[in-house]
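Example record

The entry below shows one chain as it appears in the dataset: sequence first, then C-alpha cells.
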Amino acid sequence: MVKFWMSLLVLLAQAMLLPAQVNRYYYANTVNSDDIKSVQLFREGFELSNPVLDLGEEGKLILKFDDLSGEVKNYSYTILHCDASWNESFVAQHEYLEGFANNPLTDYARSFNTTFSYVNYRLELPNEQVKFRLSGNYVLVVYEGNKENVVLTRRFYVVEPLVQIEGTVRRATHDAFKGENQEVDFTVYHEKLRINNPREEVKVVLMQNNRWDNAIRDLKPLFIRNNTLVYDYNRENVFPAGNEFRYFDTRSRRINGEGVLETTFYRPYYHVTLIPGEVRANKRYFPYREMNGKFVVESQEMVRDFDVECDYQFVHFSLPLEAPLLGGTVNVFGALSNWNANKSNEMTWNFETGRYELTLLLKQGYYNYLFVYVPQGATTADHVNLEGSFWETENDYQIFVYYRDMAGRYDRLVGYRQLNSKIN
C-alpha cells in the first residue's frame, strides 16, 4: 500500500512539472523592430570582447543600440536565467537576481550632426538596480511599455570558475589530404568541484566564432580520470574551418575605405557600394587579419563621440554568379546580422545584372561578414559552399562547461575558455 501511494505522489509531481516544461521559452539574439540598429553587448573597455563575466567580479557588460525612429521611447529591461540550451530555467528571478527584476533604460543621447536622426541607448550590467546571484546563461530582454512588446534580446554569460580548461586547435586528424577542417581537443580539470557522474552532470558547448547555429552541444568526455575529463575526439569535435571573413571600412565618407567601391551622397542620405564579391570556394587560401565576424562603430572624421556622431549609410552588397543557387538562400552573415540568417539579411537575385544583391542600413565603422548558403529548411548556415574551407583559417573557439548535479535545478556555468586556431 505504501508503494502505491509513493508511486501516485511521483506521478502527481511529474504531472505538475509538465506544463512548465512544455511552456519554457527558448531565447536567441533577436531584434524585433526595424528601428533598432547596431546592437552590441561586450565587456567594458573592449568592443570586440565576448559578453562573459565571472560571478562577483567588478567588471561590467555594456549594451549599446540605436533607435532610428528619432524618438525617446519608454524602454525597460529584465534579465532571465536560462539552461545550457537557452531555455528559461526553473528558477525564480529573486533567486538569481539581487535587486529589481524590471528597470527603466534611462541612459540615452540623441544623435548629433548626422543625416539620420537616432537615439543611442546605453546600459551597464551589473548596476545599482540589479546584480547576479548565480552563474549560468542569461538573456537580457529590452521591451517597450509592457513585457509583451519585446524589441530585442541579447545572450550573455556569468561564470563561477570552478574548473580549468586546457586545449588546442589543429588540423583535423582524419583530414590529412583535403585539409578543410579544424579539430578542437580539450581537457577539463575539476579539482575544486566534485563530480559524481560526469556523463550525466556535465554539459559542454563548443562554439566557433560565437556562432550558435553550428555549435557542438552533445559532447561527452571520452576519458574520465581522477578530477579530469578528456575530450580528445577525432570526429565529434570537428568544424569546417571556413575562410577568413570578408571586410569593409566605412569610417570615412571622404575617401573609399577597404572593400568600398564608391561612396555617394544621394540627398538626404549616403550610399556605400562595396566591391562586388566573388566565390572563394575554388581559390587558394590567402591569410590576412580580421575580426572573426564582428564589427566596431568608428569614424575617421572629426568626431568626439562615436555613439552619437557616427552616421548611418545604405551599404550595397553584391555577389556575381553564373546562375542563382536553387533550393536555398544566400545571406550576408556575421555580427552585423546578429549571427542569424533570415529575411532581414537575405540577398535577392537580380536577373539583369546576374548578381545576388542586398542593401543594409549600417552605422559607420569597420565590418566583417561572409556570404553563406542556407538550404531550405536548414537551421545551419553553410559557410563553405561560397567561401571555401581551409584548415589554416584563423578562428576563435569558445568552450563552455556546465554542471548540474542530480538534485540541481539549474545549469551552473563552471568554466569558460576561448581558444584560437593560430595560438596554441
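Notes for this example: The two ends are 63 Å apart (CA to CA). The first strand starts at residue 30 and ends at 31.
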